[in-house]
Amino acid sequence: MSPSEIYSMLRQLWPHLVLEAKLEAIDPWIEILPDGLVQVCRSLKEEPSLAFDFLHLISVVDYFQPDPKLAAKTAWEPHLEVVYHLSSTAKGHRLVLKTRLPRWVEQAEDRLPEIDSVAHLWPTALWHEREVFDLSGVRFKGHPDLRRILCPDDWVGHPLRKDYVMPIEYHGIRAQ
Amino acid sequence: MNSPSNGAIEYDVGTDQWVLNMGPQHPSTHGVLRLTLRTDGELVTECAAHIGYLHRSAEKIGENLTPRQFIPFTDRLDYLAGMNMNLGLTLAVEKLAGFTPSEKTRHLRVLAVELCRIASHLVAACSTGLDLGSFTPFMWSFREREKIQLLFEELCGARLTYSYITPGGVTADVPEGWLDRCEAFLDQFEPVIDELHALLTSNRIFIQRMAGIGVLSAEDAIAYGCTGPVLRGSGVARDLRRHGEPIYRGMYDDYRFEIIAPVNGCYPQDHDYPPVPPQAVVGDSWHRFYVRMLEVVQSIGLVRQAIAKYRQSSGSVDPPWQVKQKLPPGEAYLETEAPKGQMGFFIVSDGSAVPWRLRIRSSSFSNLSVVEKLCRGVLLADVAAIVASLDIVLGEIDR
Q: N or C end of chain B, less CB within 10 A?
């Protein structure tokens, strides 16, 4: 199926969850509401004509400009973008699914934004979501074992956030 | 000697559950992987993998350097296949920029990555033997790999961290007479494969340790995102060199090779390599090993074709871009078929020379995530066989 067919099919199935799409991009993408992630993903995986059985990658892009001068020029409001790269081994088609999250819940700098886990649909998300949680600071609801995976368990902060500040020392190891 | 209590003693011994720590410094974990194993006697009832010992924030570094500057860091992802890592980032950048290099550059890139694939598969296949206690094939394969490294050293000055394939082209054309030396190496190397087959593939002990161990079904392989020889060993004939995106698949359009996978239990080609032993089940450690051994032969063919095509093509080899070349705004994701599996680079660009975000999909990361499932209920000694057959590189997992 072509990206536009996939888009119109999703629009039909979940008219209130599917937002916009950019089908002429290098990798065509579809944006959905974060609350509907699991419903849309289940359709993508289980609908026979879609059959997206392969989750390649979950990434989070942090849209935040720490420099106030440059921030005034940016076109976007600060937010996080969670990106899912999917494909179907049987059908051979690809899709990029995006959803937006706030950087922090209620602007409180210790409450991580939350989104539903898709690990029960694609077990490969078990580790990918742990990595995203660890490095980008997004909490996945329903993940069976959401711990840090690359950083040590007692690490503070999420390094791939744009406003992350490198600690000066860690257990007596000087970093600068 | 045959007293009735003899048997009783064996079964009366209480075997408590025991948590065994394997790694991070353990020769058969292929780097700094730590596994914690809950064992009941010789049986592993639970396995948990702990990674991150080699985490160097590659993605954060990628947000602060231009792609051309980041190329040396890709060498350090899968350090056994630096060329393939270079190519992964290069093609992702070129996809974003809509750039197509010259024919001559394309053939030279195929040559380099396939030669590197041979080197990587040699390490993978023969360190499996080392993990199971067979030392000779490891030394023999390292002897051959050394010759590939010498060729690469002549080509780009480095033995492991090549930084050879870069956005725009390659850093240098081949030196005088290099292609002849490359062909001479292949001629000399081909018979060695049969020796390795004799030492490992058809070795009775090796078969007993590998066949039927760690069986991964095709469904599980896809669900866990396993790719490369791990996926193909489970009988799924999927290789991005044929099934990938046009920009990558196009590199191999005029090349002939077989996708090695035991589809319906049969390998695709007629070959005189050792037959599949009766104990082997599709998806087990032995098949993953065998897929790599046969892929080496395919890669030899590809290198030969690349040499011929390079000689025929006219024009010149493309030079690399400027270090601070600006990227067009946009996003591009591209996966390539690295020796370990599908390696992906996701670039988000805001129009400056430095990507806004550089995300790396590591093939070994997903391949390793299945280890917790595979090691449940196996014997302790089989853990080494399973980990070896997954062929992981921690530099790529931890990034």
A: N
Distance CA B196, CA B123 (A): 12
Test B346 with A85 for CB contact under 8 angstroms.
Answer: yes
- B35 belongs to a structural domain: no
pLDDT at position B10 is 57
Residues facing residue A114 across a β-bridge = A139
Exposure string for B299-325, b = 16+ CB within 10 A, e = fewer: bbebbbbbbebbeebeeebbebbeeee
Say which residue the tokens 């720490």 belong to.
A66
Q: B236 lies in a domain?
A: yes
Question: Is there a contact between B225 and A122 if contact means CB atoms under 8 Å apart?
Answer: yes
CATH architecture of A3-174: 2-Layer Sandwich (3.30)
CATH number for B342: 1.10.645.10
Full residue range of the structural domain in which residue B109 is found: 58-398
Q: What is the pLDDT of residue B13?
A: 60
Per-residue pLDDT of chain A (176 residues; tens, 9 = 90+): 888 888 888 888 888 888 888 888 888 899 998 888 898 888 888 888 888 989 999 999 998 888 888 878 888 888 899 999 999 988 888 889 999 988 888 766 678 898 999 999 999 999 999 999 999 989 998 899 888 999 888 888 888 988 888 888 888 888 76
Cβ pair A138, A115 in contact under 8 A = yes
Tell me whether B398 touches chain A (CB under 8 Å).
yes
Res B305: pLDDT? 93
Do B344 and A85 lie within an 8 Å CB cutoff? yes
Identify which of B55, B220, B344 has the shortest CB distance to residue A57.
B344
Q: What is the pTM of this model?
A: 0.87
* φ, ψ for residue A162, nearest 5 deg: -70, -25
Classify residue B32: in a domain, yes or no: no
Please give the average per-residue pLDDT across B112-127, as a whole number.
91
Judge: A27–B356 Cβ closer than 8 Å, yes or no: no
Give the nearest chain B residue to A85 (CA atoms).
B333
Split into its structural domains, chain B has a count of: 1
Partners of residue A58 on adjacent β-strands = A84
For residue B387, count other CB atoms closer than 10 A to its CB: 28
ipTM score of complex: 0.89
Flag if A57 and B361 touch (Cβ within 8 Å): yes
Task: Output A25 or B6, whichever has higher pLDDT.
Answer: A25
Q: Specify the 3-state DSSP secondary structure of B123.
A: helix
Question: Quick check: is B29 in a domain?
Answer: no
Determine which of A127, A129, A132 to mutate to test the interface with B (most B C-beta atoms within 10 Å): A127
Place of tokens 């210790």: A110
What are the residue boundaries of the structural domains of chain A, listed by start? Answer: 3-174
Instruction: From A126, A132, A164, A156, select the one nearest A144 (Cα to Cα).
Output: A126
Measured CA to CA, the distance from residue B340 to residue B191 in angstroms comes to: 24
